Amino acid sequence: MKDDPVSEGISHPDQSSDAIEGCRFENDRQLLEAIFEASPECIKIVAPDGRLVRMNPSGLGMVEAEPGAEVEGTMVLSLIAPEFRDAWQANHERVCKGERLMWTFDIIGLRGTRRRMETHAVPIRLLDGQTGQLSITRDITVPRENELKAARLAAIIASSDDAIVSKTLDGIVTTWNAGAEKIFGYTADEIIGQPITRIIPSELHYEEEEILARIRRGLHIDHFETVRLAKDGRRIDVSVTISPMRDKSGNLIGASKVGRDITERKHAEGLQQLLIGELNHRVKNTLATVQSIANQTVHRAKSPSDFAASFGGRLQSLAKTHSLLTQSTWQGAELSELIRDQLPFGDSEDERITCSGPLVMLNAQAALHLSLVLHELATNAIKHGALSDRRGRLSIRWMVRTETERKLVLQWQERGGPTVTVPQSRGFGTTLIEKSLEAHGGVTSIRYEAEGVTCEVILPLPETETSIGGSYHRPPTEGPQGVKGLKSSQQPNTVAGKRILVVDDEPLIAMDMVASLEDEGCEIVGPATTLRRALTLVETEDIDAALLDANLAGDPVDELAAVLVRRGIPFAFVSGYGREGLPQAYQQMPLIRKPFPRQRLIDVVREMVIQDSIVVPFRKTT
What is the DSSP string of 312-326? Predict the structure, then answer.
């Protein structure tokens, strides 16, 4: 090293006067002293053995020493964080051997505060002739924390599944992370420098104008749900949070956006609403079915006890099938399990009964209706048929035919019971069997032979549409007449003779509506259980008004409603759905919610048929 005046002019305090006197120029000495005292960084001189020779006021502040405190002679290593001491000592020795170095380390101040320091050290010749270390050290704790925060933020942005984007106040994209690329399909090179409207549907461009206007006012936009466009044209539901961006001076320079793909959530919400609607419809339809069973049973009951037994049995039959369907989440039921549930012997086996046939799955609606058919057959067999005698036998056999279409053919055969005679009148059970099967395009035939009853059921698999004869006539009522619904005494019977189309795929509900309307003197067209049959009746029959279920075995009735409007036939919906479940263009039409009081049905029909002119309001759809 050169023995330059500067290196010789810095020494111990007790040598300061001699050192200052040894300076070549007084102004150099004053300049050095001013720099030493005023520098915001720590300036220190360290002896070869690691003792602190001198430290300026800024350095004293960094090590948390009192102003003017004498720290000379203190071992510098005592201020270094333990894990950095070996490295600091090695670097100090290298400087004392003539190297110039820069390194970072942590110190722990006299009050316990930890700081990250960056030091630039050079060798210096001391007055005693040894070479020590002259270093300028600055506190980089805050910049380092900011750097770490920035690095962490950058890592979060880079790895986030959310789209994190920044744009100018004019809506030009300036940054685009991997999450944005994943959601929208554009790479950063493709989108940076482009207007953000590139991913906004044209009909929503006004949203961007409003967003930029709010950002220019310094406002924050939190969890704004909207729709954006992917590169491939897909529409994506997103939740967007937008914040204004400012420079170090506080000036607005743009906006940062965090967008989350909520398409799946929106789909799940829609599905949830659909399921709730379906559940509501199913519950109300079931209640309406129970109501219909009660009404039809009481019409034919010979006594209260007869009603209780018949109604309770049918209700239990329905409940058993509901339980069976619940096990398959209402996807369907297997025929042999359905038969086993409807034969009223619990878990015990009855040697008089034999069952045989292949595995056949029925959809939920068909299973419900066939269960009622089986219940009626079993009830009759127990009361009057083969199962009323210990010597009687019941054989249930079924097969699947596939000549032109898949059909279930089920044979119920009773033998060995009491002598059978042909009934003189049709009971509710027979009507229920026929109408339940007709709802699915099925047919039944019952033969009353001397040795026993034989019933054959043919049911299309899968469900097909069917033709049902023109008019429906309720069989003669059995039992007391006083239990029928009362006619309204306040309004004239203006519905008598009116031809009413009944459209419902639930045969019990249809039967109940037909009975109520016929009690008022109406003529019934149908009932139709399928959309095709209903359309045929509308085109070929004279109809004064119509009652429509909103959904026929999965088929919406929009087309049927449109035909009724075109022909000027007033109609009302009879449905377990709310208005949101009705065809969109006809949601303002009269609605009878299932289950319904009999008088509500009559009142709605009366309102439809007494109109002077038929004007059916409906909302156009685009």
Answer: HHHHHHHHHHHHHHH
Cis upstream peptide for 244 (omega within 30°): no
Write out the two tokens for 112: 């316990």
Looking from the CA of 6 toward its CB, the CA atoms found within 13 Å total 13
Helix ranges (DSSP H) in 126-234: 141-159, 178-184, 188-191, 205-216
Q: Which two tokens stand for residue 409?
A: 């053919």
From residue 305, alpha-carbon distances to 214, 302, 311, 329, 476 in Å are: 74, 8, 10, 36, 21
CB atoms within 10 A of CB 448: 12
pTM of the model: 0.45
Read off the amino acid at residue 581. G
- DSSP alpha helices (H): ranges in 2-159? 5-8, 16-21, 26-38, 57-62, 85-96, 141-159
| 491-508 pLDDT per residue, tens | 555 788 999 999 988 888
- For the stretch 65-88, pLDDT in tens is 888 788 888 999 999 999 999 999
Residue 164: strand pairing partners? 258
Residues counted in the chain: 622
How far apart CA 252 and CA 255 sit, in angstroms, is 8
Contact 36, 60 (CB under 8 A): no
DSSP 361: E
CB atoms within 10 A of CB 358: 10
Q: Are 110 and 72 in contact (CB under 8 A)?
A: no
Joined tokens for residue 337 = 């399990």
Are 424 and 444 contacting, i.e. CB atoms less than 8 angstroms apart?
no
